[in-house]
Design goal:
two-stranded antiparallel sheet, 315 residues, single chain, 10 helices, alpha/beta, 9 strands
Length: 315
């Protein structure tokens, strides 16, 4: 009897969720106010991180900006302060767990408790797997995936105490489906997606319904991180690299609407679903038709030209 009741309740919840999602697609959702909230953004010196900082500043949030590049981070802070935001900057190496924990302690002591955490920082080695130094592969996993664990362990406890907060994971469409020659990046982003989804399930199971999560999965963003990446010429106008500002603005709408996940553009939901439903060979045939199997080769060639200087692409 209990099973039947639970089954009926599940079907009701399922129907409500689907109908609500359809309605929200066509109606403008109510956006929450984050005026005065303390928002931490990693990778704030990069293109997307800077735009996130400015968008959160426009919404009245107080900012804590983390980046390994002090000069770039300070430039972001300068622009945010010009918008009237209160800003605190910290130089952090997200590939080092101790650096994260120590800086998190400083934030709590010097600024306060974080209520919005935007895990935005990301890197990619830009080398073929068998030609890539181990330390570059490790760095990709450490920054893009492992840092999510340490950031969450540092700031989630206080969110749980207050049952208030929002955790944003900026992953990638390449965390939902993969392509060739960027094994480090795909692995790290698949890990980021899995981590985020499991964390979300945990918060719901524990009853922390007022700690929200948003997973952001954009297509390639025109920040230079994947410079040279190209799909089939005839399809480039259909799926061009995303404008960084558009990407962040769409992400902000999802965050303020407390949307659990967003793919940018919406077209990215198609390969995500196809990956799960179609046979492997069918997906391979589709990738080949679109040029997805070779799309990273120009990017890798560009990255290799810079590798002699020890350059690592970061977002």
């Amino acid at each position: 009897m209990i099973f039947i009741v639970d089954l009926l309740l599940m079907l009701i919840d399922l129907t409500y969720s689907i109908l609500n999602a359809i309605i929200q697609t066509f109606l403008q959702p109510r956006l929450k106010c984050i005026d005065g909230e303390l928002c931490l953004i990693t990778g704030a010196g990069g293109a997307l991180g800077r735009l996130f900082a400015l968008e959160f500043a426009k919404e009245g949030a107080r900012l804590v900006l983390w980046d390994c590049n002090t000069a770039a981070n300070e430039q972001t802070a300068k622009l945010a302060r010009e918008l009237g935001a209160q800003v605190h900057t910290f130089t952090v190496d997200l590939s080092k767990r101790q650096s994260i924990y120590e800086t998190a302690g400083r934030v709590r002591e010097e600024v306060g408790e974080i209520s919005i955490l935007v895990n935005n920082a990301g890197v990619v080695a830009g080398r073929r797997l068998l030609e890539c130094p181990d330390e570059l592969l490790e760095r990709t996993l450490l920054v893009n995936c492992h840092a999510l664990f340490w950031m969450t362990k540092a700031f989630l406890p206080q969110m749980k105490v207050k049952n208030h907060g929002h955790i944003v994971t900026v992953a990638s469409a390449l965390g939902l489906f993969s392509t060739a020659c960027v094994e480090d990046y795909c692995a790290s982003k698949f890990g980021a997606v899995g981590f985020h989804e499991s964390l979300t399930h945990e918060l719901v199971a524990e009853g922390h319904v007022d700690i929200k999560t948003t997973l952001v999965c954009p297509y390639i963003v025109d920040t230079g991180m994947f410079a040279g990446c190209e799909i089939r010429r005839e399809l480039r106008s259909l799926i061009p690299p995303l404008d960084p500002l558009y990407t962040v603005q769409q992400s902000m709408k999802a965050i303020l609407a407390e949307q659990q996940m967003i793919c940018i553009p919406r077209l990215m939901y198609i390969p995500y679903i196809a990956r799960a439903l179609l046979p492997w060979d069918a997906n391979v045939a589709t990738y080949r038709f679109m040029g997805g199997d070779k799309c990273m080769l120009p990017f890798i060639k560009n990255a290799e030209l810079k590798s002699c200087n020890g350059h690592i692409k970061s977002s």
